[in-house]
Amino acid sequence: MKKIEHIGIAVKDLDKSNVLFAAIFGKPHYKVEEVESEAVKTSFFQVGSNKIELLEGTNENSPISKFIDKKGEGVHHIAFAVDDILSEVIRLKKEGFVVLNETPKKGADNKLVVFLHPRSTNGVLIELCQEIIG
Ligand code: ZN
Description:
This protein is of the alpha+beta class. It is 23% helix and 39% strand. The chain has helices at 14-25, 63-71, 85-94; strands spanning 3-10, 31-35, 40-47, 50-57, 74-81, 105-107, 111-116, 126-131. The chain has an eight-stranded mixed β-sheet with strand order 2-3-4-1-5-8-7-6. It is globular, with a radius of gyration of 15 Å. Zinc ion is lined by residues 6, 8, 53, 77, 79, 127.
């Protein structure tokens, strides 16, 4: 893994949270994107070399809505940039980690993403992401 790509935060109301986090960071989000397959609406903030992703569920079956029902708003996942997501999946499976989706799916921000089940990672939902080129 190369670096932390972003930290994802689950929020109930993206519009309100965009205002809140803009006040914290001293600048507005730079984009909003809906990922229909995941039933989430996201926004991104650039903070130095790091990114923060806010996520709001777009319906009650969204993984984000379910997360908030169980745990409340807050840090949802940490995403790590990788060069070759498929070989990372193979490596991590060999290490015994539970991969939620073995076939990378298209996430927000032009990335292929795979998640590791928090059950196998001390309760931390880990996202691997690889930039889609072209
Ligand atoms: Zn993410």
